[in-house]
Fold this sequence. Notes:
Layout: H1 5-15, E1 21-29, H2 33-45, E2 50-53, H3 60-70, E3 74-78, H4 91-104, H5 119-137, E4 143-146, H6 154-158, E5 167-168, H7 181-195, E6 203-206, H8 213-225, E7 227-232, H9 237-244, H10 247-252, H11 262-275
Amino acid sequence: MFVTIQEEKNLDAHNQMWPGRLIINADDWGRNVENTDRIFECVRRGTVSSASGMVFMEDSERAASLARDSKVDIGLHLNLTTPFSALTCASALVERQRKLVSYLRSHALAQVLFHPGLVRAFEYVVKSQLNEFERIYGAPAERFDGHHHMHLCANVVYGKLLPSGTLIRRNFTFCRGEKSLLNRMYRQALDRKMAKRHRMVDFLFLLPPLEPRQRLDRIRLHAREHLVEVETHPINREEYGFLTNGGAELWAGDTPIAPCFLGVVQDRMATELTKS
């Protein structure tokens, strides 16, 4: 997998103090009943460590109640690209979010370009989601990622809209040749910038494609020595089947799937402080 020499040195230093972990995180908790229920089934089975919850969506309230009652590890899935669907969502918030949806989906470079005319809209929509998460979950979010990874868009990053010191999802890790050199350099620079204000895992991979199996095997081997997040969407039939029909357990083998996300990262931080 593609990493710089300096990144590899830093990770090697971590590995001397801390073994790896395989974290499987499911996105879109609360988007609708089907998404929530499929993720919850995977959580109960032990094939999903945690989930990323959407607010102001049709199943957000029920999903939050379910997470509180069952102690599911939930982070905020910041939504700037899919219209809010909760019937109780304020019209002013809906209108501002629609502006962001329209802009971020307008062209491929919208994510990387800072839009000065939308600064207040971004601030309002992000802050509203932070407040809503705290309201329905009973505590502030400590872990963040984004629907379509828009938590990494320029207005959120350079506007410093997410709380400092929190855990944030990094860019995907790609093999050499999967993305252009310029693309990889941009992602690495963005990760370095985010690491100055936030905590991040060592690597991020998307669960699919499930074939060839050698790809999944490489991810599992990384998780023996590094802190690895695997992003999944159980609403997709192939991923749901893999997570519920024994495929995930067989794949993980002697690299057990972590029972939570935030706790694992906090444990590593505590270990590093003890060793330093």
